[in-house]
Amino acid sequence: MKNRKKKGQVQIQFNWIFILIAGAVILLFFVGLVVKQKGVAEQGIRTEILTALKPIITAEAFSEKTKIVVEVPDEEVFFHCTDDVSNYGIQKAGVAIDTPITPIFAPESIMTTKMVSWSLPYQMPYKVMDLLIVSAINNKYYVLGDETKFRTELINFTEEFNFDEINSGEYTSLDPGDNFRIRMVVFGSTNNVFTENGGVIPKKLAAMGKKLSGVLIDKKETINGATLTFYENEYSSIGNSGTWVSNGEIDTIGFSSMGAKDSVLYGAVFAESKDSFECNMIKVFTRMNLLNKVYEKKMKTVEEHFGNTGNNDCTKFLEQLGGAGIDSFMADLQDKVGTCVSALKVCDVLGSGEWGAKKLQSTNQGLLGQGCMRIY
Fold it and tell me: Which regions of 83-198 does DSSP assign to beta strands (E)?
């Protein structure tokens, strides 16, 4: 009798153990299923974002002077440019879409529900392509320093973005708040926070690490272009301190846009760094190299046409390109463009002397004034 009782107790204990194990297995199965479904859903959202971004970015690149505010899921989107190729993607997805042609001037990453994109034409002197600017409403841009025409224009034409003018006193007490990234845009030597006080960054801003960056724009009012110096936050967790450190300087006077707006300077305001800015501009000049070959053929056709008709008024404007003729002019212009592709630091496609884009512009204007066939 005692053995039966003991045997029954063992069976009951075994049954309970079996039930617990089975229950745990079932629970783990459903937990795993939920986690898997969550992962699939998240991946689906990320794929959806990339699918939505692709036509937006492609369309914006060919929609001159337009600004678009796009609502997107709150995922971190990155923008990179290396080896003259831009790409963008979702940080957690590990998948990027290459944009080998379109230059994208943007922060390294954005995390927002509202992304802002803007297209600005680059002219040299004809339209080469549109420069695409991308940012977010929670990326803050603080503007301070010297009063310049471009500074005023920047504030007036960026209302869809998150810009604010401040002075040096306000800078020392800035609080990042809910902003994902902060960019300091400083004009000239007045209130140059990058060098004043040894470039020490207020603690609350310094704590942002790489999400804090800056650009100094030394604008030349009498001519297009400026000297640009890009800065990053060298942050130390010891004492929660940060110091502004330059990551490079570029002079844009030789390749600043000849359009109504200097799209190059706008690109500098939004580009993450000197390397990112340079990488995207090299793509612009690679395209210009191809377009110049098209315009060279058109110039030869125009020259032949005027030669056949004996129209001296039109011919004399083409002769302004130089005594050596169109071939030599275009060869020199292409050399300038090639220099810009290989070393943007010494780029001078505008042409400070006899040759360059300025000469092509004046020749085209002369043809237009005489009612002649234009080059572009």
Answer: 85-90, 95-99, 104-105, 109-111, 114-123, 127-136, 139-145, 163-165, 181-187
Pick from 111, 79, 93, 88: nearest CA to 44:
93
Which alpha helices (H) appear in 61-182, and where do they start and end? 149-156, 168-171
Across the strands, what pairs with 166? none
Residue 27: how many other CB atoms lie within 10 Å: 10
Give the HSE-up count for residue 259: Cα atoms under 13 Å, Cβ half-sphere: 20
What is the rounded CA–CA span in Å between residue 273 and residue 141? 15
DSSP string, 11-43: HHHHHHHHHHHHHHHHHHHHHHHHHHHHHHHHH
The token pair that represents 26 in the structure block: 């079932």
Note whether 187 and 151 are within 8 A (CB): yes
Residue 240 has pLDDT above 70, yes or no: yes
Q: Mind listing the pLDDT tens digit for each residue in 182-197?
A: 999 999 988 899 999 8
Confidence check: pLDDT of 207 > 80: yes
Q: Which two tokens stand for residue 164?
A: 């604010």
Residue 334 has which token pair?
């292409």
Q: Are 95 and 80 within 8 A, CB to CB? A: no
pLDDT band at 38 (very low <50, low <70, confident <90, very high): very low
Q: Angle, to 10 degrees, between the axis of helix 149-156 and the axis of helix 263-270?
A: 70
d(CA 322, CA 314): 15
Question: Helix or strand or coil: residue 215?
Answer: strand
Query: Judging by beta carbons within 10 Å of its beta carbon (0-12, 13-18, 19+), is residue 136 exposed, middle or buried?
Result: buried
pLDDT at 191: 87
Among 88, 90, 67, 70, residue whose Cα is nearest residue 79: 88
> What is the number of alpha carbons within 13 Å of residue 250 lying toward its C-beta?
30
Nearest Cα neighbor of 217 from 249, 245, 241, 244 is 249
With bands split at pLDDT 50, 70 and 90, how would you rate the model's confidence at 34? very low
Mean confidence (pLDDT) of the chain: 83
**Whole-model pTM over 0.70:** yes
**Pick from 135, 129, 189, 204: which is nearest to 163 by CA?**
135
